[in-house]
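Archive transcription. Copying these from loose printouts into the bound notebook so they stop getting lost. Printout 1 of 2:
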Amino acid sequence: MIDGYKKYAPAVLRLGLGLLFFWFGISQLLDQSLFLGYLPGFVFNFPVTPEHFIIINGIFDTILGLLLVLGLYTRIVAAFAIVHLLSIALGLGYNDIAVRDIGLALASLSLFLQGPDAWTLDHKRQ
């Protein structure tokens, strides 16, 4: 009985990751102070303030999330998500956030390998 729902798995994965990125992005745009403690030390040497760095990252995450939800450039966006999440995990060192982001990077890898599902705008454009 549950096998009949397998066809929805790629869309659920894509939408879940998309909503997660969108939520993190909006959260960073609304209150940068919540994320200051997660920044690695080298960020404080950048020519922008840590708050501006978080805003830039928030814009990036929001765009990734929107593109995943819409299913536009699915594979390319998934590849960016993988690199982004692994760079965060490596920058943080070993902790609960890094472990979470490695898991999300693997989920993004699954999406990258799968490619666009039947409910993406990518699929509609083909």
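Printout 2 of 2:
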Amino acid sequence: MRSQETETEAPHRSPVEDEPDALLASYRRRLRTFDLPVSRIAWAGAMAVFGLALVLRLWGLGSIGELIFDETYYVKDGYTLTQTGVEMDWPEEPDAAFEAGDVDSYEETGSYVVHPPLGKWLIGAGTLLLGVDSPWGWRISSAVLGSAAVLMLTFIARRLFRSTTAGLIAGLLFAVDGMALVHARTSLLDPFLMVFALAAFGALLVDRDRFRERLALAAARMHLAAETPPTLGVSGGLRPWRLLAGVLLGMACAVKWSGLYFVAVFGIMTVLWDWWARRTVAQRRWLLGGFVLDAVPAFFAVVGTALLTYLASWAGWFASSIGYNRHLAADEGVATGFGPIDSLISLWLYHRQAYEFHVGLDSEHPYAAHPAGWLLQLRPTNFYYRSYDHGENGCEVAKCGAHILDVGNPLIWWLGTAAILVTVVLGIVHRDGRAWAALSGLVGGYLPWLMYTDRTIFTFYAIAFEPWLILCLTYVLSLVIGAPDAERERRLAGGLFVGSLLVLIVMVSAFFWPVWTGQVLDVDQWEYRMWLPSWT
């Protein structure tokens, strides 16, 4: 899809007066910076999509009063973080008592955990808000942030593709997808990782556009004044959106270490964007200038800020005396006697232990899945299943079941997988930067898992990169609709096809709703929804 700028003549202005505006417009076109004001229609559409997402994620959120899947770890950890500042040990088999309201039976020793604390702090915040004795309190943070991610993706796609229609398509797809729904309705860590990575991507998009606008203005001004450009080019100046991205990426890492891959990919991406922009305006030393003026500051803005943010997430552990391995430096005989340094050494040694746990995790699990099958949803993760006989929990036939299967809408994921391949081809053939931007989150969120196929890993990790799969699908669907300057019949045909496909996708989501939300179904109805043998 291409954006168009409308140029209108100003009869009262002379050609000399028009020259600055024309030159600036020329640079802006070359740098692909276009004004796309947020109209009332855009806001109304975005709010409608957000409202749909919120309803789907909040409807019956507390209907299952049990800890679901890995909630058994993270909800209890989140609660003890709010009480003591660190995760605490619990007695054997504590879930039944916890679910019944006995929430203070945790022990007086810190718990060994292998994930950073931020995601659990967010879960704990929900228990403070709505009560730890309520399933709503366990899950409200996931539901609200999962809905916010839909709104973010709507505006991110709109900015990336310069199209309100594209933004609404992306938002709708994310709002109704099963994997996004299941994660937003349960308290695991991965959806928080996704939210912060997506927000960082959006911040870098804004930073990119603002830098290009500044570069266009500077290039036009120097051209008109016949000034000699600085040796290394124009400085990018203060870039608050890039700093914000660093904070958000640090928060992603503070949820799960796999956020590090997003730091690496997005850090490289933002520098490549700057290099391309400098080269486009014919800056003579664009590579050197980009390294000195962009790459080095970007390292400190993104990586340095992310590191400081990550360390800040451990504030509760630093402030405690009972956190697990809190005094490991002294225990290992490597303490320096200077408290702050010893705390950092203890944290480093603790991280080394956790890393060894992760790389050695190869125990068997019935829902472990090779990452090669994640995109096609070949082995989704079973989060919850209960079987009921006639008369139990509303079962009106001989046998019923209530199931929460973390499977994405098959049409979204299967078409999205094909769209990824198309996006790669178009990115190579047409050198389309939008394509590579849409692929960036897959490079950071998906490809690294192909290096760890010997570990026990699961399809539900795919939530971290799902927004970029949807961006690829949106990119291809936008091409099907056609460019704004395409013939009316062409756009009408494309729009009807895409509109019909979206209706079908929504219908498929409605069909799968019961197995995404734990509704009681008779066995026949349940089997109709198990489209692949590997889903059972």
